[in-house]
Amino acid sequence: MFRNTREGLALALPAAIFSTLLFLVPVGILLSEAFRFEGGWSLQGYIDFFATPLNRTVFLRTLKLGALVAGTAAVIGYAAAFCIVNLGPRARGTVFGMVVLPLMISPVARTYAWIVILGRTGIVNEAITGLGLSDTPLRLLFTETAVFLGLLQLFLPLMIISLVSAMENIPRDVIPAARVLGASWLAVFFKVILPLTKEGLVIGGTLVFTGSLTAYITPAILGGSKVLMLETLLYQRVNVSNDFVSASVIAMILIVMSFSANLLLKKIASARS
Amino acid sequence: MNTSSRLLANWVILGLTLTFLIGPFLIIILAGASDTSYLAFPPEGLTLRWYLKVFTVESFRASFLLSMALAVFGTLAALLLGVPAAYALNRYALPGAETVRTVVAAPIIVPGIIVGLALLRYLVVPTGVTVTLALFMAHTALVLPYAVRVVSSSMHNLRADMEEAAVLLGCSRFQAFTKVVLPNIRGGVLAAFILGFVTSFNQVPVSLFLSGPGVRTLPIDMLAYMEITFDPSVAALSALLAFMSLAIVFVAERLLGFSRYV
Is residue A221 part of a domain? Predict the structure, then answer.
């Protein structure tokens, strides 16, 4: 450790000042906008926002989809993570790599694939009309299901990664021991695996939930204006109706959720170390 | 359950999961090769013309170059700010170190769309800064947290006494940094560059509001293009971008064991 404070600050401050000026200040002003009303300060912007049925619907839908994606990711994640941990070291590396890989690919590309799958001339509709289940192609895009699938595909890797690293820390013999002592697989899961991987589940769940909440591309491409989520609503409010107060309210909601999730993660991380 | 059926169940679950995660890419690769003027899967006839068309669309070329420039220079700027900051946070007993850490990490917590809107409203509009410059700064701010984090963690393992020894042997502090510290954290800096590059290049929400006539990043341009055109070229372009990311990550992994740093 060097003691020369001035030198240290000279090195650290440019980054901090840059972040503050270009980031904290503009975002702060944006957030304050919803509290300004007729020259004074008030909560009117928030009251008006939640008084609009569409806004409420979008708010609840965003929470619902976030929770649904996180929940589904947890179920698939446990199954997948359990299988990955049971693999030999070589296969484990390869499979883990394949799980992580999609994270590096452009979300636009990842989401666009669902248009190919769910579109009017997509694979699902071809199959449905081909089998004679329906004469006309079904509308699968611009539905909550489409957005759900897109988000799940986007964020599932985060859950699997968190759960794999949690499961790697389960002592080897605990599960066989529980089995020998007569526990059913269900009991093993709820009494052994779940308690021992709680942290990983919380970390993965928060990442997936906040990721889904703040995703723009997936609801934009797969939901359109039929299935708005908070981010796409924000975009619409600004670009279509020039309504910066609503935009500021939405921004606050998103930041509060994202920030509390982050605090939670920090707390888990510090409790562990 | 006996061992072999357990093994089978294991692979079935993994197979389904991987199909869900990776399958869509195989589908866009093929959809981009469909010999039809609309998006079709399974592809009807195979052609490379959509893959070639991508390179002739003027707006794709312009936006690709912009995204490339933003990713390269934004990440370099973030490293220029981030490496000294990471160094200071690791080596000095700074008052307010925690505050600096929080401020620098803040861009990760705030959704990009808000950053873009805030910069448009309170930087571009009042000061007349060009959209391109605002984009550059937004991308720098976005990559900065990754730069600081990755470089910090690679600096963490480097003992301070090596530098002190270099100074005792006659190096200036700056020389000690360039001759002792920098070579040792080279891997971390490179990993931060790659992570920053990929993050910036794939970034959409930040750039959503920061676009003007002729100034659009590639993902934004793709979003705009797919609203008016339904030909397979966006699928082809998506596939090409996926290959690009994979190639970068593959090379990075081979050269420096990228995954250690992320």
Answer: yes
**What confidence tens digit (pLDDT) does each residue in A113-166 have?**
898 888 887 788 888 888 888 888 888 889 999 999 999 999 999 999 999 999
In a domain, A18, yes or no: no
Tens of pLDDT along B190-232? Answer: 989 999 999 999 989 999 999 888 889 999 999 888 888 888 8
Domain span holding position A162: 69-272
**B214 in contact with A at a CB cutoff of 8 Å?**
no
Element (H, E) at A41: strand A40-41
Residue B255 CA to residue B27 CA, distance in Å, equals: 30
Cβ–Cβ under 8 Å, residues B41 and B32: no
The CATH number linked to A242 is: 1.10.3720.10
CA pair distance B81, B84, nearest whole angstrom: 6
Select from A29, A99, A235 the Cβ nearest to the Cβ of B21. Answer: A99
- Test A123 with B81 for CB contact under 8 angstroms: no
Handedness of CA B104, B108, B114, B117 (dihedral sign): positive
ipTM of the complex: 0.87
pTM of the shown model: 0.89
